Amino acid sequence: MPAYSGRQQAQKPSLLDNARTGDYLQDTDFDPLLWLINGLVPEGLTLLIGGPKIGKSWMALDFALAVAAGNGYALGKIFCGVARPVLLLALEDSDRRLKDRIRKLQPDLRIPGSLTYMTRIDPGMVVPTIEAWLKSLPEGSQPLVILDVLAKVMPPKAQGENDYQRDYRVASRLKMICDGTSGMGMLVLHHDRKATADDFVDMISGTNGIAGAADTIMVIDRGRTESVGLLKITGRDVIEAEYAATFDGGIWSLAGATLHDAARAAKTKIATKNLGDRSAEVILLAHLKPEGIRAADVVAATDMNLNEASTYLDRLYRSDRLTRPARGLYTSRSITTVTTNGQGNTRNAFLESQESLDDEG
User: Fold this and answer.
1) Helices (H), 218-258
2) Measuring CA to CA, which residue among 61, 8, 31, 14 is closest to residue 252?
3) Is there a single domain that holds both residue 179 and residue 243?
4) Tens of pLDDT along 145-195?
5) How many CA atoms lie within 13 A of 126 on its CB side?
6) pLDDT confidence bin for 206, thresholds 50/70/90
7) Which one, 81, 147, 222, 257, has the greatest CB density within 10 A?
8) Residue 158 maps to which CATH number?
9) pTM above the 0.85 mark?
10) Residue 308's CB: how many other CB atoms inside 10 A?
């Protein structure tokens, strides 16, 4: 007797059940990418990477309060205009510490009722816990889940698994939750490698399996004793960018009034890294005048004489910090490369759109 009757054969799933044609793509309109925090946290799985005690949890709490309130401002500047349910899994905190931190971030405001938090989860129960919370929400809630921190719920390797397979399995399971809930975002905090890397994605602790499963990656790059850091972002659906932000006593604030300003400030920070005061002063002047500066402009803006100004401009040009499009005219290299990485003018258009969103807030 055959293994399947004719009726059973007809019900057997086809390997091509999920195949689509070009006509389907051509004729189907898809919803635009949803931002839970404009320019920073889109729907899907986002990793927030940084070293221990660098301010990850403070930033995540700032995001949680801004999104749950709806009329809150992430990083003090980015308006969140829609109140959404937020589940904060603050697994390294206590009730008292969490309340103390919230009071520092918003001393005069009531804690949003749409914020749900947990400080303890039974081993191996993070996925069922998140799924149970999602089932309690009204349809179309477009929630945000924040997991602080991934290491607290990382299971041991299954039999026969290597480190990469375990990391990818865990991150993929979290991503599946996002993919199954329309408009949902999940922010997962994770440690860095405690070492620098040319590609900031390589700073993620563990194997590439964690980064490979994520939709978006944000890395906090801040020196332990520095107040100004960089928030570096990349992902499948977002424009790669770097934003400057300050960290003061637990409070993160965007450098500038908008993401556009923060991107410019990030370029300035990068351009002046490891420079002396005089050289940094010239670089900053070049940033303020994208059309270019000459030695006479430096003299007019500083206490340098013409010879000193010419020397610093030439030195910065030879060290590849400035460009020289014409004789005696110097421009900031970071300003001229704002729209590189194959994006044409997309970066500027994106930042301008975010600036308009901020203005509306």
Assistant:
1) none
2) 61
3) yes
4) 999 999 999 999 999 999 999 999 999 999 999 999 999 999 999 987 665
5) 26
6) low
7) 147
8) 3.40.50.300
9) no
10) 16
